Amino acid sequence: MFEATKVGRSVSKEDYKAQQEELRTQLLAIQHDLKESRIPVIILVSGVEAAGKGEVINRLNEWLDTRGVQTFAFWNESDEERERPRYWRFWRAMPPRGEISILFGGWYQTPIEHRFNGYCTDAELDGELNRIVDFERMLIQDGALIVKFWFHLSEADQKARLKELSRDDKSRWKMLPDKSKFSEHYATFEQVAERIILHTDRGVSPWYLIEASDRRYRDLTVGKTLLHAIRSRLAEASNGDAANNLVSPDLPGSPSAQITLLDQLDLSLSLPRDQYKTDLKRLQTEINELAWTAYNKKRSTVLMFEGVDAGGKGGAIRRITTAIDARLYRAIPVAAPTDEEKAHHYLWRFWRHIPRAGHITLYDRSWYGRVLVERVEGYASDAEWRRAYSEINRFEEQLVDSGVILLKFWLHISQDEQLKRFKDRESVPYKRYKITEDDWRNREKWPYYKEAVNEMVARTSTRHAAWTLIEGDDKAYARVKVMRTICDTLSESLKGDPIPTAGYVPCGEKRIVGGG
Amino acid sequence: MFEATKVGRSVSKEDYKAQQEELRTQLLAIQHDLKESRIPVIILVSGVEAAGKGEVINRLNEWLDTRGVQTFAFWNESDEERERPRYWRFWRAMPPRGEISILFGGWYQTPIEHRFNGYCTDAELDGELNRIVDFERMLIQDGALIVKFWFHLSEADQKARLKELSRDDKSRWKMLPDKSKFSEHYATFEQVAERIILHTDRGVSPWYLIEASDRRYRDLTVGKTLLHAIRSRLAEASNGDAANNLVSPDLPGSPSAQITLLDQLDLSLSLPRDQYKTDLKRLQTEINELAWTAYNKKRSTVLMFEGVDAGGKGGAIRRITTAIDARLYRAIPVAAPTDEEKAHHYLWRFWRHIPRAGHITLYDRSWYGRVLVERVEGYASDAEWRRAYSEINRFEEQLVDSGVILLKFWLHISQDEQLKRFKDRESVPYKRYKITEDDWRNREKWPYYKEAVNEMVARTSTRHAAWTLIEGDDKAYARVKVMRTICDTLSESLKGDPIPTAGYVPCGEKRIVGGG
After folding, report:
1. Which residue from B88, B125, B352 is facing A351, i.e. has the nearest CB?
2. Polyphosphate kinase-2-related domain spans which residues (chains A, B) (predicted)?
3. What is the value of ipTM here, to two decimals?
4. Which residue segments constitute the domains of chain B, with CATH numbers given?
C-alpha cells in the first residue's frame, strides 16, 4: 500500500518558489468561497513519526487566512476531556460551517497508538474503525468535507529524520513518545497503518497518502490536494452533482515530482529466446503439478489479469492454460456485460465465476474495469468509481478470508511498444481481429489511464491482495515473471498443513477450506 | 425494543377478507411498476422461532405475481456453496433489476444462530454486522430496495405456537433445530436479536418489527408494509427526491390492529394529594443524597425529558432541580438553535452540555427533536430523520459506554387533558406566557406526532437506553413516577464497585469513569 510513497519524488527550490505563490493565492480565494458555501472542512493530519506533521500544519497556517482556521492537537487530555465520553474532545474541535479545523491526529491517533503498542487486538481495532467510519459518514451527510492526509517515509528516510531531529531539535526530541519503538518497529507500524487506512478509505472520505521525504514536494502536494478537494466539493455543492474529478490535483510541476510507480518499472528487462524456452517448459510443468496439489488440498485460486491494451494478457494466460489440466480451470474473458449481467450489481458477474474448492479461475480483465475504463470513459459516475475501491477491497478480502489464493497482475508496456504492437496487429491478417477503433481511441487517453492505474494500485494493493506489476515490453520476460510469481505463490500457499489456519473465521464459524 | 410487538394487535376474519382483496390488487399493480423501474427488491424474512416465517413467505408468493418473484431458503448449504466464499450463496440469490427475491433468514441467519449458540463473542458478531451494513449499503447504492422483516412473539405466545406445532405438524416439528433451546432461552435470543437489529437498523435499510401473534394481522401488515416500501422507493426514483413518507403504511383497519404502545398507557393512574406530598418529600431527600454519592463516585448523569406539549416536563424538572445542590446540575432548555448551533451538526449542541464526571445535566427537550418536531414539520428531510435513529442510538451508546447514567422520559397525556391545560394556561395570567400559537398548531397534528413518537420509542428504546413512558394526566402521579425511576436507577447504578466494569473499553483503552 505504501509503495507509491517511496518513489523519491522531490521539488527543486526554484520550482517551489514559483509554484508556492500561485498556490497561496488560490488557497486564499477558495477559502473565501468556502465561507460563502457554509461547508465545514475538517483536515486530519496523520502519518509516520518524523514525517513532519507539525511542519505541514505550520505551513497550512501560514498559507491560509487564519481567521477561518483553527488547529487542534490532542496531545494531552485535559481533566475536562477525560471526564467526558471520548468523542467530546472532537466535537469541541468541529469547525462551524464555512470554516476549517485542522486536527493533529484526530480520532485516528488513539487507535493507531493502542494497536501499535499491543493494547488491543485487531478485532477491537476494527470495531473502533467501524465507529469512525459511521462518525465520518454522519459528518459528511451533514455537509462536511473531510480531508485525510497520511504522511509516509521509507524506513531509511525515517531513521535519517529522527537522527536529524535528535541533533537539531533537542527539546522536541525529548518529548517524542516511544521514539525508539517507532523506528525499530517500522514494519509493525506500517502494518497497523495499512489496516487503519484500508478500513477507513471510503469514497466519500478518502485518504491521501503523501510521500514526505522531500519537504517541498510534501508541502506543495498538501496544498494542491487540499485546494483540489475543496474545489471539487464546492463544485458538487453548486451543481448538486459530482464535480469533474477525472483529473486529480495538479501535482507539483517539477519532473522529479511527477514520477509514479509505473514510471519506476524497468521496461528494458528482457529474456533471451533460449532461456525463455527452458524457463517456460519448467514453469509449465511446475504449474500443472501445483494445480493438482491445489485440487487435492481443495484450495481455490483466482488469477486476475489487467493491463494496457496489447500489454500481453492473452499471451500470458494462454501459456498458463495450455499447461493446466482443462478440468481444473476456467478462463473468463471479461467484455461488455450481457443483459443479464447489466441487470445486477457490477460485482455480480465476477461472483458467478468464483471457483469451487480446488479449482482455478483466470479473469482476463476484471472488476477493476470499474476504476479503469468505466472511470476514464465516464460509464461510472464519480461517486460510483470512488467508492469502488473499498467495495473491491472488501470483495477481495472475502475471497482471501475464505481461503482463495488471489493473484493480481498488471501487464505494463511503454507507449512506443504499444504503437509497435498495434501496427503489427493491423498488418498481420490473423491478428487483425484483435485491434479495433476503440484501441486507438483508448490510446489517446493514455495519461488518464495512467493516472487511473496509479490510483488503483495505490488504493488496492493490500497486504492480503497485492498487485504484481509486470514489465511487459519483452513478452518472454513478462510471461516468465507471471508464471514464476504464480508458482512461487502457489507452492508457498500449499505448503504444510492442508487446512489454512490464517483463514478468517466469521462469527465463530469454522470453515474447512482445505481437505485431507 | 420489542415492547411494541407485544401489544396484542389482531384483525378479525371479516376485516381480513375485506382488506386482503384490495391489498392483492395493489401489490400486483406495484409489481408491474417495479418491473418498469428496474429496481431490484430484496425481502429478508427473520424473527423468533414459530413466528410463522414460512407462512408469511407462502402468503407473499400467493399474493404476488410469481413470474417476478424468487424465494430462497438457506437451510442446508450445498457442496457448491460450501466450497466458495460465504456470500457466494447470497449473490446467487440476487434479484435482477425490476424483480423480487424473498430470502428466508438471508445473511442474518448465521450470525443470529452463532451468537445464540455461543460460537462467537459480541465483538465477533459486531464485526460481521459491520460487514452486513457495508454489504447492504453497497446494494442500495446500486439502486436496490431492501425490506427487512422481523417477526416477534411474546414468550407465552411462542410457547403456545411451539406446542401447536408439535401437535399439528409433526414432520416439521422434527426438523426444527434446537427447538427446546429457542423456547427455554427466550430472553437470550431476544438479547441477541436486539443487538443485531439495533446495529443494522439504518435509515436506508430499516427493520420492520412485526407483531406475529395474530396471523391475519401479521400477514396484512407485511403486505401493507411491503406495498408502502416499494411505493416510496418508486416515488423517490421518479422524483429524484425522497417520497412523502410522513405517514407510514396504512396499517390494517380493525381498531384492534391500531393499538400502539402509547395507547396502552393507563392515563387514569393518579395519586392522592397527601400521598403525593409524603412521597415527594422523601424522594427529594433521596435524590439529593444520590446526587452527592454520584459526585463522590464521579459518575455523571443525563436526565432527558420529552413529551406532549403541556405534558408536565417543566413541573417534573423543577421538582428535581429544587431538590439537588445547584453546584451539581445544569438544566438545559432546548429551544430553537442559536446561530452558532445552526452552524454545526444537530448533535453538536447536545454534546456541548454533556456533564463532566459526577455532574448531572437535565435536558428539557433533546436530540429527539430531530425525529419529532423536525420530522412532523418537515424541517428535516426524509433521509435526515430516518438516519437519525441510528445516529441517536450510537450517540447514546457512547454516553452509556463511557459510564454516563442515562434516563429518557416521555411524558404522555390525553388529548382531552391537553385541551384542559391549554385553556387553563390561557386563563391564568402568570401561565399565559407558556402557551403560544405554535402549541395550538401542533395540537392539530396530534396523529402525526403520535405516529412519530411510537416509531421513536420502537427504534430507540434499547437495552442500554430504554425509554420510560410516564402516564401524565395526573401531575402528582407523573412527578412521583419520574422521581422514583431516577432514584431507583441511580441507587442501582451507584451500588457496589465505584468503577463500573460494564463500561465499554475502546480499543484496549482503560477509562476510569469512576473514582475512589
Report:
1. B88
2. 11-233, 273-493
3. 0.81
4. 3-245 (3.40.50.300), 264-494 (3.40.50.300)
